[in-house]
Structure formats: structure tokens, C-alpha cells
Specification:
Length: about 500
Amino acid sequence: MTMIDRRAMIAASSAALLLPRPLMAQSRGEAFSWDALVAMAQRLARAPFKETPLHPGAAKVDYDALHQARFREERTLWSDLPGHTGIRFFPLSANAAQPVSIAIVENGRATPLRYDPSMFDTPPGNAVAALGPDAGFAGFRIMNAARDGDWLSFLGASYFRAPSPQKQFGLSARAVAINTSIAGKEEFPRFTHFWLERTGADSVTVHALLDGASITGAFRFVSQLGPQGVRQDVTAALFPRRPIEELGLMPMTSMFWYDEANRTQGTDWRPEIHDSDMLAIASANGTAHCRPLTNPAAPRVDVFAERDPAGFGLLQRDRDFSHYQDDGVFYDRRPSLWATPSKRLGPGEVRLYAFPTDSEYTDNIAAYWTPAASVRPGRIDASYRLDWSAAQRPASAATAWVADIWRGRGDQEGQDRLVVDFADVTEAKSEIWTDVAHGALLKKAGYPVLGQRNLFRVVLDVARHGGGATDIRVQLRSGDRPISEYVHYPLGG
């Protein structure tokens, strides 16, 4: 996976197609509909992919210049509606140098929004002011009714993100992932056109046209801000231009540097630094899987074969401020993201891809669904729900769940100890089921933690074999009945 600078806006390397006239005509105040957008994407897939040059002045808009340019409050779209959400726009920058077209949809008609440099209040000599009157926008963000924060943003390639209910941003989502785990082959299709439609005081529907070397697509995001966070109902029609080796649907991108189980990997003073700490999967048969995130020594792919999974997500499960001690960017407030398919997915895999990082500015984690069927030119329809929240586990999960994990040395030199704490264990008797691959289980123990309500601790001593990872699986059971999440944890590797 290409390393992504979190201070950058991600999209500089993405390529765009010079749009044919029929597509441009769509945004000249003409009728607009979902079916018309799908037809656009389908026509686009039949045309050769062509790159467009980056805006020449965008390279001068560095991190400081970008954040010195303030969007004028009075230019907020829909600012004339007190109590309603509003929209502000991002200028081009060195890391988001390709403009996107934006149109406003009202009563089924789309009116293009023209870029205006006076939208931004800039200090003398700021490079944003020098971009010119036809520079175009890099993206947009949707503000809350008080205009003191945003609850959804689209910026760079096909990335978008929403904050937690505590108004803290963290991980991102994107439209599709192309060849993410295949070295040297990852592609970043980008949204080239947006159509914005106000649908309520705290709801906006975003339509988007996706274009890339291997795929085009039409997307509709029905987005709603609620007390538990942001919910998006997503509909997509995808049109591959050519066979795709690995297509990732419902993809999520996050950062994991180190946590309390891997403290020695960090050089920072803070005890933990990560946007997400858990991949969770809800299988169709009711099994709740969890794969705690790690910072691997080399790129690693974990594959979870599933048929019709109920959902999956990257969670920020640890929400204790004292575990992070970060009073600036508040990792304890980062959102969790859960994807729920709206229809059966059939056979495929939830994939977790991770590569090493030594900083908090690199997104090194990706999770996505890969269908088992080969991807060739044609049409692929997808529909799903995204929930951005502070949830520590899916709302449907009724089993005991992993609250904490620690690692250390076992009783003997060369042994590893893994300690897993399960919360909400209500069974009077809990049995520990384990399996160890590429290693040997030397000792296991389990007991309720004194003074802690419904907390059950599992202690495993393991001897690793060879230089690769030793994969440990552990679950609490009562007889043959699972009573906890099915934990997958890699030691080393």
C-alpha cells in the first residue's frame, strides 16, 4: 500500500480523465438523476483513460499556506438557512493538485458551482490567492448547524471521512481499493465530479463520479448526522475498464503505530498512538471475529474467508484517555467505522493489509471486502451502510468482547506471554479454547479478575517456531457454545 502522509490531502498521484462534452453538459443547469449519473460512468468506462496535468500553481500551496487560507464564513453554501448544515470548500494544494467539479442539485436540476478566490481569506503572499480565478476546488466539507465544526469531508482521490460524536476525526473510507495488497500495483481512482443535494437540516446527499485507469463508477452517499455519529447509506454502480486482480469494496484506511501490547515499537512519550486498534467481523452464522491491529515488521495480509458476512469494521476500542495521554489530537475520541451490506455479498474475503510505520502521519492499515468472483469489464452493483461512531463493538454483538491485550516474556527465556482480557463475561464457567500455528502452546490459564465486574483474563505462554509470525486463536466457550469473540492474534512477523 502506498504510504500516505496524513498531513497531505492524499490525492496528488491520482489521475483524471478529460471528460467528453456530454458529461460536461450534464452540469450546465440540466436535469440530474441517479440513472443519468450511472449512464455517465458507463460511457466513461468505454473511453480510454487519460491523465490531466496538475494545476501548476498548486505545488506552491504547502501545508502552512493551506491552513493559513481561511474559508470566509459568509460564503458557506446554504448559510442563509439558520439551523441547517452548510458546506465549505477546500482550495487546491501540493497534495491535492487536481480540481474537482462541483454542482448543486435542487429540484432535480444541477447548477455548477464556480470557483472564486475571494471565498478564502489569505494573508499577503499566500499561494492560495495566486491560484487564479479558474483554479477549481480540491474538495469540500459539510459543517454542522453552529458552523463550529464539520461532520463529513471529501478530499483527495476517493477518500472521505467523518468524525466521532466527540468531533474528532480519525480513519478514512474510500470508494474502492484497487490492488492494495499487491506490491507496486495499487491504483487510486478519484472522484472527478460531485453533485450536492440538501435533503434535511442535518442531511446531505452526495453524488460522485469515479474515474481511474481500471474502473469508473457512480456513487450516491445519503449522509445523516445524528446523536450517535454519522450514518451513510451508499449505493454504487461500478464499471471495470479491464480485469482487476484485487477489487476492494467498502474499504477503510487507518493508522496503527503501537499500543500497550507493543509499547517497544514507539519512540514517542505517549503510551499508545493509533486511530484504530481492532478489525471486527460479524459472520453470517453469528460468530464475532476480532483481529487486534499490529504494526508488522514487513507488509502483511490477513484473509478471512466469509460468505454473506453481516458486516465488518475498524474500531477504536480503547477509549480511556489515560491510556494515550494525548491532549492535542485525542486518540481516545477517534471514530470507529462499521460497514453493513444492504444485500447478500456471496462468497469472498475480508482482507486486512498492514505495513510497517514509525510515525503517526502514515496510514498503514487497510480493510476491505474482496468478492470471490473474478472482476472483469461489466457492471458491479454495491449497496451498504457506513456508521461512524464511538462504538467499541457492533450493536448486534451479544458476546463477550476483547477489552485489553498485553504482551511480555513468559516464564522461560525465549517464550512469549499473551494476556487477553474479555469484558462482559457473564457465564459462571468459561472454558478457554486455543489454537497455535507455527508455534507451541506451553501454558494457559484463565480466571475472573478480582474487583472487576464480568472481566475474565486469559494468560497464554507460547514458544514461537522460526522467524515468521506465530498465529494464535483464542475464544471463551461454554461446552461447545462460543461465549466470546473469536480472537486472531499474530506474535512477531
